[in-house]
Amino acid sequence: MRRIETLFLAGPDRWFPDAAGHLERRRERVRAAGFTPLDGDRSLLVETQHSEAMAREIYASTLEQVRAADGLIVNLTPWRGPGADPGAAFLAGFASALGKPVFAYLNVPDDDEADHRERVGAFLGASVDDDGVWRDGQGAEIEDFGLPENLILWAEARRFYVVVTMDPFEELTGLELCLQAVALYSD
Fold first, then answer.
1. HSE, side-chain direction, 13 A CA sphere, residue 97
2. Where residue 45 sits, what CATH number does that domain have?
3. pLDDT, tens digit, for every residue of 79-120?
4. Domain with 168 in it
5. How far is it, in rounded angstroms, from Cα 183 to Cα 187?
């Protein structure tokens, strides 16, 4: 256990509808819980045009903020497919490699989507082979541990919350649960 004051907020939220408002609501919740939010603020970028140079600047700035943070809360809500946003997954691994505590949540619209295998099956098709192994529509094995996300992402999180909600892109209950867990962890 260690004192946590700053939290990096990772996830695909920057791309959500009404992203600016959503990001500010997340920051407000973090501040209300007594922490300082970091979330890849891009207001200080030197590059002004979307380009490879801007992408590299965003990457370097984001990693600098993760290094500076005491911990990370990652939104692993399925993004553009059955799994988490790859950038969010990368940042969770990066923070973990730095020895920082990672807390995670995932929003889904119904109970069926709370299971990783079910989401993969719905997206790519799924069937059980002769050996009882779940395979996707392309014949590749589907990770089947009864978990809400890939086992590495799930296992890394100090706490992992699944929230079934009508609005996966606006719901902040998972963030609030993570903040409660961070407060307990940080005491």
1. 9
2. 3.40.50.450
3. 999 999 999 999 999 999 999 999 999 999 999 899 999 999
4. 6-108+160-186
5. 6
